[in-house]
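Deliverable D5.2: sample structural annotation.
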Amino acid sequence: MATDTRDAAPRSGTPARPARSTRRRITPLQFYREIIAELRKVIYPSRTELVTYVAVVLVFVSAMVAVVASLDFGLTKAVLAIFG
């Protein structure tokens, strides 16, 4: 037995109009003021934290380069050994 999945009430022939947005445009000056206010909330890292973060990123990227390079080298040797 099939179930009826249609709406109970028939739809009218006119599509519903989307609601107008209640938000108003702001001036470029107000936009700039809000950007400055948000930038004042940012907590910037200290010099030691920044050095630590840079070191971690460089070590990770170097490790990933080594992994990809070794896979590339190994797969190249394998393909040349098989089809070579």
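Annotation notes: The chain is about 60% helix and 0% strand. The chain has a mean pLDDT of 87.
The annotation will be released with the project's public dataset once the embargo ends.
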